[in-house]
Amino acid sequence: MARTVAVGLGAVIVGILAGCGGGGSVSTPNPVPTVAATPTPAPTPTPTPAAIACGKPTPPPLYGFRLKVHDDQGFKKILDSRVLVGRDAAYCASLGLPGDICVVRDEHADDAVTCGNLVAGLSSQTGRYGPNWYWNDKPCRPAGEGEQEPGCKQHPSNQFFALAFGPGTYTSCGDNDRVCHGIEIQ
C-alpha cells in the first residue's frame, strides 16, 4: 500500500510539473524590447545680461582704475573712475592704444560702458556695476545722506562716480576689493 501511494504521489508531481512547463518542451520568455538611451540634453547657456555684453576682443582682467576729479565744486567734487585692464600689450594694441595697461575701450565705443561693467563687476556696496568707493578706508555713505561733513557719498545713478566732500584719500576698488586705486584730494 505504501508503494501504491508513492507511485500515485509520483504521478501527481509529474502532472504538476508538466502543467507548469516542467515537461520536455522548453519555453522561451517574451523578449523585453530594449530602449535606446536618451542622451542628456546640454544645458541651455545662460544669456549674457545686456549690461555686460562686451564685443571682441574680450578684455583681460581688471588691473585698476584711473581716477580723476570730474567736476570740482569746491568742498564737493564728483570723482570719476575708468576701468584699466592689463598687462596685455596685444589687447591694448588691438584697440590702438600704447602699452600693456589701458582703458577697457575707447569711451566713444558702442560697448565702452558694457565692457567696463563686465570687467568691474557688481559693487558689493550697492549691487550696481562699478567699483566700491572709500574715503580714508571707510565705505562711502549711501546716496541721499548728508553733504556737510567730510567723506564720500555714493553717486545716485552711476557707480563709476562718487561724491567727495573735503580732503582725504578717495579709493575705488573692484574684484572684491582686491584691486584698488586711490586719489588724494587736498
How much helix is in the residues? Answer: 10-25%
**Element string (H = helix, E = strand):** HEEHEHEEEEEE
- Cα radius of gyration in angstroms: 38 Å
Give the end-to-end Cα distance, rounded to a whole number of Å. 126 Å
Total strand count, please? 9
Mean pLDDT: 85
- Strand content is 25-35%
**Unreliable spans:** 1-20
Q: What would the principal axes of the Cα set say about the shape?
A: elongated
Please give the domain count. Answer: 1
Largest sheet: 5 strands, antiparallel
Count every helix, treating DSSP H or I runs of 4 or more residues as helices: 3
> How does the helix and strand content classify structurally?
alpha+beta
What is the gist of this entry?
The protein is of the alpha+beta class.
How would you describe the overall organization of this protein?
There is one protein chain. With 186 residues, this protein is an alpha+beta fold. The protein has one domain. It is built from 3 helices and 9 strands. The protein has helices at 2-19, 89-94, 112-120, and strands at 62-73, 76-86, 101-103, 132-135, 138-139, 151-154, 161-165, 168-174, 179-185. The strands form 2 sheets. Strands 1, 2, 3, 6 and 7 form a 5-stranded antiparallel beta sheet that branches. A 4-stranded antiparallel beta sheet has the order 5-4-8-9, with no helix packed on it. The longest helix has 18 residues, at 2-19. The chain is elongated. The protein starts with a helix and ends with a strand. Mean pLDDT is 85; it is low at 1-20.
Features:
alpha+beta; five-stranded antiparallel beta sheet; four-stranded antiparallel beta sheet; 3 helices; disordered N terminus
